[in-house]
Amino acid sequence: MSDSGFEDDDDDLLLQLVEATQKPPTSIIPNEPSHPNFQSQLFRAQGEISILRAQLESLQNARSEEISKLSAEAKAIQASAQEHVTALKQTVDKLEDEKKFLGNEIRSLSSVKRRKVNENGMSQAVTVTTDRDTGGLLKSGNGSLQSPPHDNLRGSDQDDSIPKAHLITQHSRIQLEDDWSQFCHHLWHYTINGSDRTSMEFLSKICTESTLDNTINITIPANIPFSVCIWNTLLNHKYLRLDMFVNQICKSILSVINELLRLHEHKEPGVLVSVPFLISIVHASINFKSSAISESLVKELVGGFCKISQKFAFVLYLNDEEDEAFSGHNTVPHQQRLMENFILVSAFDVLESAAVICTQFGEGFSQELWNSGILDINLMQQILPENTERFVASVQINLVSNFVEILSASISEDQFCSSNVALNRSIVKSLLKVFIIDIRIKEDFMFYGLNRVLGNNTDFHKISQAVPSEPERFFNKSLISMPYPIKLNEQSAKEKFHVAFQHDCHLLTLRVRIVMLLESIVVSGKMELLNSKENIKSIVRIIGYEQNHLLHQPRYELIHMRITIIGVFVRILFYIIEGQKNINTLIYPETLYEIFVVLMKIAFASDSLSFEAHELMSEIRARGITDIGIFNKSCEFRSREMAHFDLYDSNPKKYADLAGIEGEFANGLEFPYESDTVEIAREILSVCVNHDEADNLYYNMNRETQ
Question: Which of 177, 318, 518, 689 has its CA 20 to 30 A from that of 602?
């Protein structure tokens, strides 16, 4: 049979036959569990894992909470312990003061006993004076004057006694060294800066025409000198502890000042004549010993003198006759205007001293003065306004100096003066305006004040005329109840130049103090107050402004102050720009060009001129010529003072050392800037430009040396 004979049906039969002859395969029974049971076990395991993970997270959270709680408790315990330690220290200090006071009292009593007459009838020890009025007499313990006892002596005893008596009379009067006597001595000899008389001498010539009633623990009768009333108060509170004594004296005098100002508001004439000298007595009291000043006294003084200053702040806006006529102040005598101005200056000096003293109570106390409203913020904004027109019209340099010192005393690690960030930014902008806008000389405000000898003091001499040491006889009075008229004198050209120079010195000193304050703000972590685009723009323009002064006045006596201002502002720029990858986010595009200009003047200052100048200076100094200046006498002599250089040293190399010291001190021309300032300027430029631009700048700025 051929293959073609098979059909599809035959194929099916053949397959069935083959399958029938083959051995059936053995079936394999799987050992794995059924599908539903496996899924349930998987879900159960995942649930257990989730439960364990949740338990672990809860344990970790509980552990973190427990750690935080324990840390907070530890910090609270540490703070409580620190407060306890501080309280104990204060208690110890008070006990030390009491111990010292009691020791002084014991010594004084012992001294009195030693001065008593002995039982054998011998003369008692004497207290010797050097006053010429006594004519060589000795003062006995009962106060009577006795002649030296050489008349009763004979022979050699007489010869021995005479030189002894002569020796004794050369000694000064014995004084007990206790706190009360030292405080009285301090008040009695306290002198206002630039005055030829003490404050007590002024007050010994001043009285009131009516008795002052509304005062605290002090009586001011009519026609009695203020110095007598103050001395009686000192005697009445002699046995108080020093801190309580100072507290009582300050409050008493402050009450007298407030009563006099109340009478002034009721148009009683002449009552202001004693106020500035009473303020100076308060200033002397709080500066005697800062440890004797309490927190409550500082708060009362700050609040009280802020109110006093607010009453006289209007005088800052009296710039011409129109302003005086508008305010009704054109009929006030000139001597009264001077008194009002000096009261304002003196009151701010006391505010400054109180703000500096409060730093001993910790950072929180200073912040409390700002945040609680004890320190009048509106008054401070009147002293240094942010508005340009008000700034030009009202700013007075003494008051700005006081405000800057108050701000310097208010810097802490936590905040800068107030907790109000907007207020702090406004203050910083106002401080920068002091560099951009010159503070002009304000008429009738030329006083040294109580805290520093800077600027001019010509107007205080007018106040001395208003309170003469010897009243005119035709008034038929030995005391003064209202200020005398003042004789005005025209200033010569030389005097005007001196006044302008002294004012410039005061202004530059103020600017140096402000730029140091701004650097302290940045270093203490308050960068956000300065790193705005407007502030950086102002800083760059200030540097350019000072560089123009260096260019036009290279031999100026105060040039070192301008160099200091430039150097500190360059450091501030470095602090702001440091760590910034893209400087364009910090500044305006036009400010970048100004930065290039001012920093290249510093970074690429001519080295060849400095080298030649140093050679010339070394040659001149090597010849022993040291009493004259070569390039800038003030800078060269100042460098000697700062280096404590001794011209009389026997070292043979001293002239070479002197040339090196003077050559390292910048003078703005031959030695343009300090080396640190140059390096920082180059660091800032490296952030502003890339490598190719830096090479091109260096090549162009140093072409003369290549």
Answer: 518
Domain holding 693, by residue range, is: 534-605+674-705
Q: Cβ-count burial of 618 within 10 angstroms (0-12 exposed, 13-18 middle, 19+ buried)?
A: middle
- Residue 411 CA to residue 520 CA, distance in Å, equals 8
Helix axes 533-552, 589-603, angle to 10 degrees: 40
CA-to-CA separations, 400 to 191, 349, 438, in angstroms, rounded: 23, 11, 12
The total of structural domains in the chain comes to 4
Distance CA 146, CA 169 (A): 13
Do 632 and 564 share a structural domain? no
| 500 and 541 assigned to the same domain | no
Residues 348 and 246 both lie in one domain? yes
Residues 457 and 575 occupy one common structural domain: no
| In a shared domain, residues 203 and 284 | yes
Q: Encode pLDDT of 106-146 as tens digits.
A: 776 665 555 544 444 444 443 333 343 433 433 443 343 34
Q: Which two tokens stand for residue 560?
A: 């070192």
User: Does residue 689 fall inside a structural domain?
Assistant: yes
Q: How far apart are CA 213 and CA 116, in angstroms?
A: 43
Residues 6 or more apart whose CB falls under 8 angstroms from that of 405 comprise 352, 355, 356, 451, 513
- The separation between the first and the last C-alpha atoms of the chain, rounded to the nearest angstrom, is 117
DSSP, collapsed to helix, strand or coil, labels residue 411 as strand
- Kindly tell me if the per-residue pLDDT of 404 is higher than 90: yes
Say which DSSP state 116 is in: S
Copy the structure tokens of residue 390.
């008000």
pTM: 0.74
Reference 122, options 156, 96, 149; nearest CA is 149
Asked whether 169 and 128 are in contact (CB, 8 A), the reply is: yes
Number of neighbouring beta carbons within 10 Å of residue 50:
10
How far is 132 from 130, CA to CA, in rounded Å?
6
538-566 pLDDT, tens digit per residue, is 999 999 999 999 999 989 999 999 999 99
The token pair that represents 658 in the structure block: 């002197």
Instruction: Give the rounded distance of the alpha carbon of 255 from its chain centre.
Output: 28
- Reduced to 3 states, what is the DSSP secondary structure of residue 447? coil
The span from the CA of 247 to the CA of 288, in Å, is 12
Tell me the three state secondary structure of residue 220. Answer: strand
